[in-house]
Design a protein that fits this description.
A: alpha+beta; 5-stranded mixed β-sheet; 53% helix; B: Rossmann fold; 5 helices; globular
Chain lengths: 572, 123
Amino acid sequence: MALNLKKWFNIRESLQMLTDADSSSDRYRLFQRNIRVLMIVLTIIPLSMMALINYHQYQSSLKQEMINPTKLLVSKTRHSFEFFLNERQSLIKSIAHFYSLNDLCDEKKLNHILFTLKKEFIGFVDLGLINESDGTQMCYVGPYNLLGKNYANQDWFQEVTLKGTYITDVFMGYRKFPHIAIAVQRLEANGESWILRTTIDTTMFDNLIAAMGLDAESDAFILNKEGIFQTNSRLYGKVLEQCPLKIPAGGHATYVDEQKDPGGNDVFLAYTHLTYPEYTLVIVKPKSTVLKTWYALKSDLFLVFLVSSVLIVIVVFRLTGIMMNRIREADQRRELAFRELQHSHKLSSIGRLAAGVAHEVNNPLAIINEKAGLIKDLVKYTPDFDQKEKFLNLLESILKSVSRCKTITHRLLGFAKRMEIEVENLDLNELMQEVLGFLEREALYRNIEITLDLAKDLPRIDSDRGQLQQVFLNILNNAMAAVEDEGRIVITTWEKDPDTVAASIEDDGCGMSEETSRYIFEPFFTTKKEQGTGLGLSITYGIVKKLGGNIDVESRENQGTKFTVYLSKKSK
Amino acid sequence: MLQLKVLLVDDEQEFVTTLAERLELRGMHVEIAMDGEMALSIIETDPPQVVVLDVMMPGLSGMEVLERIKAIDPKIQVILLSGHGATKDGIKGMQLGAFDYLIKPVDIDELIEKLNETAKNVV
């Protein structure tokens, strides 16, 4: 895999592959893919990293911003609770100190005190005086008949005798309302001690929690140190039930925790432990509410990331597409130029070789031709002798072979000659007439009608006279070969456009099939069997191309053929 | 029929002598020259009706000889012979007044035909 990746991203290698002579489309695809992947990776990675960093930074700062108000609220409410409880504890303590046992044992007085307390402060339900030595209620004012009740075995009684003051957890009073009790011990100078106890309605707890002004999804409640609800929770249970959330124990600062509640929702907890009594104030907020802004920002962030990524991918694809096309075009041009250069080099060396060979062979060939011809003549003029006929046949076949060799050497010479170009300013009409001069006699003998339809004022062109003669001679020779005796050949010239002149040679000869016309310009393609070398039209085509022109052929079997040559006015 | 008087000019002796013999077999009067100078001196002294002239020769080239022949007597017909089929040479030759242009190795019947055509022209 690592190796594979390395190979993928090895741009140098990819480029090398491109410069290799064989530039198949596979290589381009591979290169394009590599470039695309590389560009996308190089752009998406920083983008992703930026997005991730932003994500985390926003997340942490927003979280703080979301959580801090809640923490503040918790701490404020905690102070309210502490104030509420301390105030009541202090009141009871003050009463215990300011009044004597006798005063408090007076039910009327105690009633008056309770009345005043109830009038001035919220929550006071009753007042009772308890003998510390046996735990019996000596005096009681309030809604219940609790006089003489013994508290000796209750926890709070033990605690208050030890600590001097005590605030109980919430308990259900006789009226089935949650209450807390505050008890204060008073030690007399004579060593006697008694306890003043009051019950306080915890409706105020609910009021304090309501005053926090929490939204509908949030919850706040008080727990005792065992995790029992001291107030009703909107979401997690009624007073005196066990709280399903685990609140870690700890100091008196405000803490934040994240949990999954029993309903499976992600929640934020902000909580604090009261100094005294050991209550815990808890605010629960669903994470979704707390992080609403964050979620909105997150989706914005994601959208921006997504749009940028898509844009990057599109741009990368477009760019690489354009780039690859440019590279491919440049390569194709280069390859074409290279191939043409190679081809012309090849042709010119073949041409030189061909010319040399043909020329050297041609002279001895001419001698063989004449010698064999002379022998034939002599044999012919000699009176009949043994095997005369055979001699004549043998000589005839020598002459035929010479003739074949001659065709080949002539073609080779023709092939060689098209390598050199000598440009001169010439008149195509004039050139046509010259070429026709070669064929007029044959046309005359065969009674072939040659019609000239030459454009007047045909612009002169810069081209190679000899080569063009060869071209039209070749085409005309083909036309002559195609037509029957008394056939018709039409030669037309015209100005095709301001840069181009054209000449067409049309015959009403045998024509050729579509299949044949597709191959006629290929070297060594011939329909003349042993008579042709298959080079004529290929040479013609090569010359026209070399002169910067073009050649077209239209043909229908048994109807005729039309060759059209287009030549640019200026030489290339 | 009038016996045609032909001068063959070619530097290749084997070729020229054999061709001369063949033409003579066909009833023509044939002279031989191995180069341009020789040809011109023959033309000066005993002008033929037709000259069959090789284009590529050492010394005077065929084209030069052609020009001189035409200068001496435009009525003398010239058939050019070339070892290589340069159309350009042919056209140039024709422009200089050559009757026709043939490529080696030459077909004897074709040559005879051309010679006979020139004969008609001469007459």
